[in-house]
């Protein structure tokens, strides 16, 4: 089996294929594993790009078993905050979205007693989902379930059916309009850091419930360490991986996938080919658009370019600071004024998420220093309008072809990145005096950075936007036919583009695709937990207990269009 792509989807596919006796080789164009689950060093800081929460990193759900099978968590400390996110309004007031629904309800009622009905309804929904998570299926794809298994799955959801049905049929943007308090009316849209206009209430319940169950924290070491752990599990199972290897074409003979051709002209043969690259690259480039039914043709030639179908890209600013900022919260979404968004190229919504990342990963920075991670949703088009030259460029260095080296995008692009950096630093200086002079290292990534490192279509992460037509079409097609393309045998799809969601979905996709491969080969699927390390430990980290008292002081101050409040 040849697997294209060494992100979490490809690594997971490789692990489960090895557990079932398949000889495997992964080809990854980057020099390291992980794909979007990554980080990089600047000076003596490590900037972690991906994991702000990891669904399933605690027990009581099927997601957790997948991570243990992949060796992702063993021997690590799982860190959980008691506040999932803080949303701070333009007037300086803040809403703390506690993971505990009882504490959340008390906090929200303290902000707006007149909104008791929608507050209690929302918190009751989180309580219900805390129980429902235990029966949510991740281990086996619905398309492979027998009728009896499907009935058992549906029966397990019966106690929660009413809440699930209501939460999936109401958009959060509509639910939020029920609040009379203007801050709550806006803040509820930003629970998941940014505003997701197409999201119903269900993913908000799911996320907060997972967090409350201590199953959505962060793993010690961060994103790249997680990918490295799965890589080691894969190599320990006897798998092979080749880095700096960019696949240019899937080789096909008599409508059967037989191998791949790399960018340097080398060809490798296999009985089975699995692509964990993004969907557009796979079907339109590696296969030249030859194996498309009407559904896939519409997905990848027209629907993919319609607004809202793909998850938007990010602009991210990393800052390494040569002093601690103990009052910086782990995660705050700021609602911005028009003035504050002026220099933020491509911003889709007047908000920005700011994480004092050292609270998550203190081991990734020197002692008595701070890493800040500030992000906002951004389309790729404004950045493409500024850049010059290729978006990716392969070069030979010391006899080895490399595909993710920096490319020069020109003066206008660099100037836009400087404006982003300077604007965000100035914004944070107003809230954290001494912030600007403490900055030692800064790095800005854009959707074009994502293209350079992963080749993903339009810099999107993680692929199809949930709860819209494209995502629902993909799910229906794979449930009906499996992760395959019509008319092409011995070829399978894996990774986030063959499912909907983030890292746990990528990991589960690897398990699922190997289950389909085993079925097609007449084999009984097998999987086992990695026993090579001790179970993970768990630590709950309280966000500043004095924060709410500080808010009471803050609310007595005059307000303006710029928040002048002291941070929690």
Distance between the termini: 52 Å
* Shape label: globular
Please give the share of residues in helix: 25-40%
Biggest sheet overview? 7 strands, mixed
The low-confidence parts are: 546-568
Structural class by SSE content: alpha/beta
Radius of gyration: 23 Å
Individual helix count? 20
Mean pLDDT: 93
Strand order of the largest sheet: 7-6-15-16-17-14-20
In percent terms, what proportion of residues is strand? 15-25%
Strands, count: 22
InterPro entries: FAD/NAD-bd_sf
Organism: Kitasatospora aburaviensis
Pfam families: NAD_binding_8
Protein name: NAD(P)/FAD-dependent oxidoreductase
Describe it for me?
The protein is of the alpha/beta class and 568 residues long. It has 20 helices and 22 strands. The strands form six sheets. A seven-stranded mixed beta sheet has the order 7-6-15-16-17-14-20. A five-stranded parallel beta sheet has the order 9-2-1-13-21, with helices on one face. The radius of gyration is 23 Å and the shape is globular. The model is unreliable at 546-568 (pLDDT under 50).
Topology:
Elements: E1 2-4, H1 8-19, E2 25-27, E3 39-42, E4 45-48, H2 62-69, E5 77-81, E6 83-88, E7 94-98, H3 101-111, H4 116-132, H5 147-157, H6 161-169, H7 172-176, H8 182-187, H9 202-212, E8 218-219, H10 222-236, E9 240-242, E10 247-253, E11 256-262, E12 267-269, E13 273-275, H11 279-286, H12 294-301, E14 313-321, E15 332-335, H13 338-341, E16 351-356, E17 370-378, H14 381-386, E18 395-397, E19 400-402, H15 411-431, H16 435-438, E20 439-445, H17 447-454, H18 469-481, E21 491-493, H19 503-520, E22 537-541, H20 547-555
Parallel strand pairs: 1-2, 1-13, 2-9, 5-22, 6-15, 13-21
Antiparallel strand pairs: 3-4, 5-8, 6-7, 10-11, 11-12, 14-17, 14-20, 15-16, 16-17, 18-19
Helix pairs in contact: 1-10, 1-19, 3-4, 4-9
